[in-house]
Amino acid sequence: MEKHMAVCPYCGTGCKLNLLVEGGKVVGAEPLNGVTNEGELCLKGYFGYDFINDTKILTPRLRNPMLRRSRDAAFEAVSWDEAIQYAAKKLGEIKAKYGPDSIMTTGSSRGTGNETNYVMQKFTRAVLGTNNVDNCARVCHGPSVAGLQVTLGNGAMSNSIPEIENTKCVLVFGYNVADSHPVIAKRIIRAKERGAKIIVCDPRKIETARLADLWLPLNNGSNMALVNAFANILINEGLYDKEYVANHTEGFDEYRKIVEKYTPEYAEAITGLPADDIREAMRIYAAAPSATILWGMGVTQWGQGVDVVKGLSGLALLTGNLGRPNVGVGPVRGQNNVQGSCDMGVLPTEFPGYQKVTDPEIRDKFAKAWGVPSLPGEIGYRLTDVPHLAETGKLKAMYVMGEDPAQTEPDLTQVRKGFEAMEFVIVQDIFMTKTAMFADLILPATSWGEHEGVFSAADRSFQRFTKAVDAKGDVKHDWEIISLLATAMGYPMHYNNTKEIWDELRGLCPIFYGATYEKMEGLGAVPWPCRDLDSPGSKYLYEGNVFQRPGGKGLLFATEWRPPQDKLNDEFPLILCTVREVGHYSCRSMTGNCAALQTLADEPGYVTINPKDAKALGIRDQELVWVSSRRGKVISRASVTDRTNKGAVYMTYQWWIGACNELTIHAVDPIAKTPEYKYAAVRVEAIADQVWAENYVQQEYAKLKGGLSKAVTGAAKKAPAYA
Amino acid sequence: MNRFVTANPSKCIGCRTCEVACALAHSKGAGVEGLAPDSFKPRIRMVKTADVSTAVMCHHCEDAPCVNSCPNNAIVYRQHSVQVEQERCLGCKNCVLACPFGVMDVVTVPAVRQFAGMTLSLGVKAQAHKCDLCVDRESGPACVSVCPTSALTLMDRDAMDETLRRRRERAAQEAAEVAA
Ligand code: SF4
Ligand code: SF4
Ligand code: SF4
Question: Do residue A40 and residue B148 have CB atoms under 8 angstroms apart?
Fold first, then answer.
């Protein structure tokens, strides 16, 4: 049996593991003693590898480039040569006719790795000539990046994952660590065993709430009010660190004025929390000699996500919990490489290494390195703008790599209309996805396990992963495909391996410069910033309390609470909040093809509901129900549980039949443009004929799987002789 | 003393990694691809109520109700554990009803016999189904080895003594504090 070192592709913890290979097939995974996982893996890490082997449980792997010359035609397998020429011609025509800004690309926060993302943004900027490149951080931690860049100067976790277990207080805010990052959950449990106090702010009784010293089940949509009340208590009870605030922050007077009104009693009315519990939380937090704030999608997937992120960083600034070990602010990244795609500049605002596209000197530097006369200086489009831009005719072509927006974006009806309105859609993926069904051209890539590269873990650590098996079929590495396309469009691009790409980008990004492949050999992890070849990298940021802002001080920021945008009424009386579950990942194209994970949970997925709400609606546990909003209607299975708060229901976003994003609202944060996935007004209805409903689910599921599989097998049959 | 696996509810996060590991450890080498919802029968189960998440499995009792209830002596004490001799199991379910923890089940598996190089089907065979402590697995209980939060531990005499010693110490400490 061979063993090949990899980094788990399922979350930002960045667990190191060995893939076990027998006869060219991955047959197992075993944990390694990596920096962040120390010999542990979770459910997905252990049992989430068989998708590589093309199990076809949910959807088949892509084996050939596939083209359809008109939208009503079936896909036909074509040669790489034809596929690339076709794409180059189409993109070239669209660029000539409508301008470079009529084209948009995406990076991928998943298994492709940093090098591919670097190449994709280079292609977008240098070859297409636009900053229209984005990644799914937009729909998850975009607000964390936007918020923290303003208040502290850096959008990432301030401290490393291993430090969590040495902190004396963990404030968990809108972050279901047990389901999102099980191996980080262990760090929190260990911190508690070592005497740390755990405070959890979440409307649901999530696992961490069960283990917490204090659980604050706030009303859905009241985050800002609670964070302001926290600041109010720290100031009014004199719990804040006056010296730290005086020396290392700015904006205190303005900040104080805004939070003044948010007394715990005032916040009680909005959050539904007893004023004394809110006080207690801040007394615990302020008393701890070191304290860490961790948050997730419960903070960011709101119309007011950026504000709340800024507010949370304010709590750390007020109490001096930054700039040293075992403290800090932690937006814990969900997808395995969403930190990486941001690091690599797959953002409409930034070049790799967080260098602004609006800065002419930076543009010159990149233009020179990439051998082009100039680079675009206008900020590009955001992923969440796509449906609207396509429908209004501003966006004509899209090149989607390793993402499935037709499953993961809000309000899917709009998303589909957007894709239909575009003249040319390329999807580059490893699986036939819902998005691929809208493509004109499908480019098949190698999967995690079939290529190597570097991922960025949630705590900024760069780690290398290697190739375990050879890819089957006529597929290529993502970065090779993009290079071929660039060359066909008149910009010769060629790399021999990922290291060449890595060395090029290191040279252009001062904060990554010292993170060489050699340092990341084996179990090596290099947290950026790492500016020098002899530096081990930075476990924590803001050493000496110097913030990466002009003047070096942290900014205290508060603003008024705004209520969520969707409105409850008699027709839609319940709040729908979308969440995730431990066994499945992202759009589920990977985990849905893993036998073990699919055994634990399958379509149509669950809508969890409080027993009181269920009873009032005549719904029993495990029955199929309809869930509808102003935007759509889907079938789901009721899971009646006391852990869900009354008045709200929760659905995980990876189901293809019970797709909760048919229901969610396209209401976005004004700055980060992240959608309000956490609040949609819905109605849940019992279905009288359960036998019919079960059959309906099976039929729909079979139809969907059949369609995806036919698209691939149909094309392969028509494959010409070369294939 | 019989050995057994214990779960610590203040560490369990309800992830079911243990369930999959258990099913795989008894898959006769079929690997993950052999798993399917209908045949998924782990001997450990994660239970989630309003306030508790934890795994439950056989306690390998010293005076085991299942052993006492079996009319055909199919359940025996062996290798410091409670084991089922499947050839003797009738599938009468007495043990299922006798077990106070709800961790004994009776399942049916296809029964086959090898004859002259051919596999003959003999219908189905009942099996009393519960944790066997992975006695045939070299590296010990599969569930214990995978739990990401180390919520599971294998208790043998030594581990038990250590736990008891710590508890007594704590009790003494607390008594002293009360007295002070
Ligand atoms: S999903 Fe996350 S926690 Fe689980 S093994 Fe993978 S990286 Fe580790
Ligand atoms: S693997 Fe551990 S944490 Fe997960 S359900 Fe089992 S006992 Fe609980
Ligand atoms: S010890 Fe083995 S048989 Fe028993 S529950 Fe754990 S994995 Fe299953």
Answer: yes
